[in-house]
Design goal:
Largest sheet: none
Order of helices and strands: HHHHHHHHHHHHHHHHHH
CATH topology: Growth Hormone, Chain: A
Number of helices: 18
Distance between the termini: 29 Å
Number of strands: 0
């Protein structure tokens, strides 16, 4: 088969068969992340530009994470009750305003409170985006759809991280304003092109009846022990991954590496995901989830663990980023597809919100713990802890994969949906 034909076939298998609204959502995600400068450079901004301590930078990042944790659950509930589209619009408009305000803040308390507000607004959109994808994409294509959305996130992240380092060299205020502008543009795309997708509302409209409120509350999610076990294990990995945008920046700064070089090193994460996400997703097709999650956990934990050996070498830091990025590429679509499969349609927002809560709690706990340990115990303790967490997550995934799945019919899910080890 000629190379051109093989390329067209691969392209159809990768991006074909997905509905139009998904691609508008993909576009809005890309636009937003192209201007997503602030979170990546917040710790470096506070320490290198404003002169605050690593512990304070970790505290601010933790407050951002606390706001994200509150928004994860609240955004999930609003996504089911209020609707996907209005929740997404409100979150994006709130993020644009609070990010711009943060750029003008001065004083420890004001910066900390505003960072909490940014986290609160920005993370409220995550359950809505995930629920929209689950609503509009057939089950057999969801892993691919989540992979493509994650790809868009990292195209934007890779470009913004590299460019932001150059902009930051001439002043940080522009980073905050450009981030706010890109989020506002994202809200415009959502307002113009993305419809409401709540399944029960669409079904009620087709039948000419008033839409019924969801019957599942947060208690339903928290009583789902298998799902909550996955959330707990993901929390371990999320704490590790959070070190990449907070503790790693401070560690590299203490080693004398400039903001520009840090931007290029951390931008490698996004670049590798752009290059490898789709081909790796194709290679993952048909493979058991347990094996994928075990390998990804080890790569993530031990990739960060290698940072202890980097010293002042930007090249070695880049090598460690490459290792944990491969783990991230494997884990993200696998977990997102599994969460969507485990979520009843009437409670997708709540399930996605609780899953997002694990990342938000990690955003709260991870930076504070990382900053404290880096300041008081040194980098080797931080990065050794990352390796230990990754290993613990791998063991936990292996244990969960060997447990018999609960009766799917009793939980109102399709047969096989709760099987972690399913391909």
């Amino acid at each position: 088969m000629p190379a051109a034909v093989r390329l067209r076939t691969a392209a159809r298998e990768t991006v074909g068969g997905l509905p139009g609204p998904f691609w508008w959502l993909w576009t809005s995600t890309l636009v937003n992340r192209l201007g997503g400068f602030v979170v990546t450079f917040l710790a470096l901004y506070l320490t290198a530009d404003r002169g605050y301590s690593p512990a304070y930078a970790g505290l601010v990042a933790s407050l951002f994470g606390l706001g994200s944790a509150v928004a994860a659950v609240g955004g999930g509930v609003l996504t089911d009750r209020w609707g996907r589209r209005p929740t997404l619009l409100a979150a994006q408009l709130g993020t644009a305003v609070s990010t711009a305000v943060l750029g003008f803040c001065d004083g420890r308390v004001t910066i900390a409170v505003t960072a909490f507000a940014v986290g609160l607004a920005s993370n409220a959109s995550r359950p809505a985006v995930s629920a929209i994808i689950a609503d509009i994409v057939p089950a057999e294509h969801r892993v691919r759809a989540y992979s493509l959305n994650y790809w868009a996130i990292n195209i934007g992240f890779g470009v913004s991280a590299a460019v932001a380092g150059l902009i930051a060299a001439h002043g940080y205020l522009a980073l905050f304003l450009l981030d706010a502008a890109s989020t506002l543009a994202c809200a415009v795309v959502v307002f113009v092109r993305i419809p409401e997708t709540r399944p029960e509302r669409a079904a009620a409209a087709a039948a000419g009846a008033a839409p019924a409120e969801p019957r599942a509350g947060l208690g339903t999610v928290f009583r789902d022990t298998r799902f909550m076990a996955l959330v707990a294990v993901n929390l371990l990995l999320a704490v590790v991954v959070q070190q990449g945008s907070t503790t790693l920046a401070v560690d590299m700064g203490r080693e004398g590496i400039s903001a520009t070089r840090y931007g290029l090193v951390i931008g490698l994460n996004g670049l590798l995901i752009v290059l490898l996400q789709l081909p790796v997703t194709r290679l993952m097709a048909g493979r058991g989830r347990t094996g994928l999650l075990v390998v990804s956990s080890l790569l993530t934990g031990w990739g960060f663990g290698l940072t202890a050996l980097a010293g002042g070498s930007a090249g070695f830091y880049a090598l460690t980023v490459a290792v944990w990025t491969v783990g991230e590429i494997m884990a993200a679509p696998t977990m997102m597809g599994l969460v969507a499969e485990l979520s009843p349609a009437r409670a997708r927002g709540r399930y996605q919100g609780v899953y997002s809560l694990s990342w938000s709690l990690a955003s709260f706990v991870g930076p504070a713990a990382g900053g404290f340990l880096l300041e008081h115990a040194g980098g080797r303790v931080v990065w050794g802890g990352c390796a230990a967490f990754g290993t613990a997550a791998a063991v936990a995934f292996l244990w969960l994969g060997r447990r018999p799945a609960p009766a799917a019919a009793a939980e109102g899910r399709p047969v096989g949906a709760a099987e972690l080890s399913r391909s």
